[in-house]
Amino acid sequence: MHHLTEKQIAELRDELLKMRDRVLRSAGEQIRDPSNVAFEGGDEIDRANIETERYINLQRLKTRELKLLRKIEYALTKMDQDTYGICESCGAPIPFERLKARPVTTMCINCKEVEEEGENG
């Protein structure tokens, strides 16, 4: 983290904490959303289909939000351990601009591109 100033680290920490609050607030709103209440009209099959679709959508949302929360917590932990902003693949410093754009990133852009090529190839 020596390539980042204390001001930059504070800015990134603040953004991570805001991200965490948004994710938690969004999850709470989804749980309380009145559209998630059982459907009253239609027959049993219609109700079952709607409830199944809602359940799948909530699970997808829950999985995506949980994954992001884990990344946020991991980034905050790395900050506490003074290892934040260092590429986990090659050990190079991750530029502030990349961290600002994606505060939960764990790789420099070069390593991330190589990883994505491997996934697509």
Write down the overall mean pLDDT.
Answer: 85
- Put simply, the count of helices is 4
> What can be said about the biggest beta sheet?
none
Question: How do the helices and strands follow one another from N- to C-terminus?
Answer: HHHH
β-strand number: 0
Strand share of the residues? Answer: under 5%
Q: So, CATH architecture?
A: Up-down Bundle
Distance between the termini: 33 Å
Any idea of the CATH topology? Answer: Four Helix Bundle (Hemerythrin (Met), subunit A)
The helix content, as a percent range, equals 55-70%
**CATH class term:** Mainly Alpha
Sequence stretches where pLDDT stays below 50 over 5 or more residues = none
Structural class: mainly alpha
Shape summary: elongated
Rg calculated over all Cα atoms? 20 Å
CATH superfamily: DksA, coiled-coil domain
Structure notes:
This protein is mostly helical and 121 residues long. It has a single domain (6-120), classed as Four Helix Bundle (Hemerythrin (Met), subunit A) (Up-down Bundle), CATH 1.20.120.910. The chain is 68% helix and 0% strand. The protein has four helices and no strands. The chain has helices spanning 6-32, 44-80, 96-101, 109-120. Helix 1 (6-32) runs antiparallel to helix 2. The longest helix has 37 residues, at 44-80.
Give the tags:
single chain; Four Helix Bundle (Hemerythrin (Met), subunit A); 4 helices; 0% strand
Question: What are the SSEs and their pairings?
Answer:
Blueprint: H1 6-32, H2 44-80, H3 96-101, H4 109-120
Helix pairs in contact: 1-2
